[in-house]
Specification:
Lipocalin, 2 helices, about 45% strand, about 200 residues
């Protein structure tokens, strides 16, 4: 029997034996930055096209209490890592007439997990802090799953949460006078590993 196989068997046996002892306790999951990329879709030129972008550097945590059907989420986004897949747009977006990353280097989403169905949350009531302004932004969870990570041999949870914002509510009104639409689709897909 290989040592790797013995390790997996021992881990499985430990989970079976000790799972009842931890049931009902809140569990903290640390966001995996290599698998978490908040994304967005924004109008270009009043319906001419859609620009899509993502934030390449994130951190934070999720706390999940399945027994009490509750939990929290905290996602910190480093705005210097914003990426439209276009170097000139990236440079412009980081400037003071848009995200102004020198003054506001981070955006943050914080919320509480609600409306649990079959042991999984379906919504987040939360707040987005962007460009130094905090507003209520609720997200709908389209997918939520927890499982044993086959390589890290720890529990991992993943979610796909979606919502919409008006960017001028956050002081980012660039090109509004040119007819650019202000509504932005926000997508936060996250993976987090048990602490």
């Amino acid at each position: 029997m290989s040592s790797r196989f013995k390790h997996v068997v021992l881990l499985f046996v430990s989970m079976v034996i000790f799972a009842p002892l931890s049931f009902g306790k809140p569990v903290t999951y640390i966001i995996d930055p290599s698998h978490t990329f908040p994304a967005f879709e924004a109008d270009h030129m009043g319906g001419l096209s859609i620009w899509r972008g993502k934030v390449n550097s994130t951190s934070g945590e999720i706390v999940l209490d399945k027994r009490n059907k509750s939990g929290t989420v905290n996602v910190v986004m480093e705005m210097s890592s914003i990426d439209f897949g276009h170097d000139e747009m990236n440079k412009h977006a980081k400037g003071d007439d848009m995200f102004d990353i020198e003054k506001y280097p981070q955006a943050m989403y914080e919320g509480v997990l609600i409306n649990f169905q079959d042991g999984a949350p379906t919504k987040i009531e939360g707040e987005l802090t962007l460009h130094g302004i905090t507003k209520k932004v609720d997200l709908e969870i389209k997918a939520f799953k927890c499982r044993l990570h086959p390589f890290k041999l720890k529990q991992v949870c993943g979610a796909d949460a979606r919502g919409n914002i008006m960017r001028d509510d956050f002081g980012i009104s660039y090109a509004k006078m040119l007819g650019f639409k202000m509504d932005v689709a926000l997508r936060i897909s996250v993976e987090a590993i048990k602490k």
